[in-house]
Specification:
Layout (H helix, E strand, L loop, with lengths): L3 H43 L7 H26 L5 H34 L5 H28 L3 E8 L10 E6 L10 H13 L4 E4 L8 H8 L10 E4 L10 H10 L3 E2 L3 E7 L2 E7 L17 H5 L8 E4 L6 H6 L4 E4 L11 H7 L5 E5 L3 E5 L17 E8 L8
Helix pairs in contact: 1-2, 1-3, 2-3, 3-4
Length: 406
């Protein structure tokens, strides 16, 4: 017989060096990323055959060096211990700008230059300068458009979702979903009020917020969050924590949402009843809660469903889509999540898909479980949304058990 314990031990030892190397690399990522984000565009725009006048080259290089040095410093002052909002705005804006410049410097630097070469357009210097202006114009347009997209009140996305176990009495129940509002350094109190006004026009039976209310403590962002107290629902307003609450005194946010009239579903559930039928609405803390060290905070699905009739359909609120594996194993009917922002700034969605099973929209998991992932109502960090529009979602739940008309 083969000694499987020795085999497993050897496999573990073989994996350990690879994992440790990966962990070491991840530690250096905050140092490597800014260098790449600023030096690649600098090289593509200034040093790949354009032969700009020396004054242009020096001025352009100085701007990129300023960005390379200024962005990390502003981010540290804005999001570190000092929590300086003005510094955070500068750092976040530079981060979004560098990401867009990096992306389009790479794409246009390769494909547009190749296309111009194959088309026999001009000399090498002419092609290089065409690429430079194309990158700058593309980045400027996308950043301006992305800023408007990030700051506007999200459009309402409406969809019908059929749940096979939903009773006929609950057919047509209206569920409004907002998530990832991320109230932060940019004061969005007026935006918040307009979002809540839009939610109220939906005349929802149930309004859900699936976490990441803000970046900062409840005391610091109270004015921006206060309009959430004006949201109306015929049945209930419910909320679960996101990972960003655990960066900013999560219990303070739970207490504030309770004060504003929302029910924090911290590993618990409530019942929505209508027409003789019932729906279990459950919620769990974010998957990062347990590592936060806060007593009693963890994602506990069994606790959330404790005492619920197993024959009733379940609507689960969980901030991150990755919780769907546990939800599907438990036979949850529909999970509502956010977290991904739909990628927020293309093509960041490719990196999001490494960590999450879904980016946006409705997806099927297991024999009966559905997951709806919102692209988010606000934005995090860089005040831009590029090819990832924000949303307020209205889900109309449908029952297959409708009586036939005579």
């Amino acid at each position: 017989m083969t000694d499987t314990s020795n085999t497993r031990s050897a496999d573990s030892e073989a994996r350990a060096p690879r994992q440790s190397r990966l962990h070491r690399l991840m530690r250096y990522l905050p140092l490597i990323a800014p260098v790449l984000l600023w030096t690649v565009p600098c090289w593509v725009l200034l040093y790949t055959g354009q032969h700009w006048p020396l004054s242009v080259t020096l001025a352009g290089t100085a701007l990129f060096v300023l960005g390379l040095v200024g962005m990390p410093l502003a981010m540290m002052r804005g999001h570190g211990r000092r929590q300086q909002d003005r510094a955070a705005i500068v750092g976040d804006t530079l981060l979004g700008t560098s990401w867009v410049l990096f992306t389009w410097s790479v794409l246009l630097g390769i494909f547009l230059r190749l296309a111009l070469t194959l088309a026999g357009v001009g000399e090498s210097q002419d092609r290089a300068r065409i690429v430079t202006w194309a990158v700058l114009c593309t980045a400027a347009v996308l950043l301006a458009w992305g800023y408007v997209e990030a700051r506007r009140v999200p459009r309402v996305r409406r969809l019908d979702v059929q749940l096979p176990r939903l009773g006929a009495g609950l057919d047509g129940i209206r569920v409004a979903l907002i998530t990832d509002t991320h109230y932060g350094p940019l004061d969005r109190a007026r935006w918040s009020a307009r979002v809540c006004e839009t939610v109220n026009t939906l005349e929802a039976d149930l309004v859900c917020h699936t976490g990441d209310i803000a970046d900062g403590t409840a005391d610091r962002r109270r004015a921006q969050a206060a309009p959430l107290g004006t949201v109306r629902a015929t049945q209930a307003r419910v909320y679960v924590t996101g990972n960003h609450e655990y960066y900013s005194e999560a219990q303070g946010w739970v207490d504030l949402m309770d004060e504003l009239g929302w029910e924090p579903l911290r590993n618990r559930h409530l019942l929505i009843e209508r027409g003789g039928d019932a729906l279990v609405v459950a919620g769990v803390d974010d998957v990062t809660a347990e590592s936060s060290g806060l007593a009693g905070h963890r994602a506990h699905l069994a606790g959330a469903l404790n005492g619920a009739d197993p024959d009733l359909p379940v609507l689960l609120l969980a901030h991150q889509p990755k919780f769907i594996d546990r939800a599907a194993a438990a036979g949850i009917d529909l999970q509502l999540s956010g977290h991904t922002h739909g990628g927020q700034i293309w093509p960041f969605h490719h990196l999001v898909r490494i960590d999450q099973p879904a980016l946006a929209g409705l997806s099927h998991h297991g024999p009966r479980t559905l997951l709806y992932t919102s692209r988010g109502t606000g934005f995090w960090g860089p005040p831009f949304r590029v090819f990832a529009p924000s949303e307020i979602t209205l889900l109309v739940l449908r029952s297959p058990h409708q009586p036939t008309s005579m």
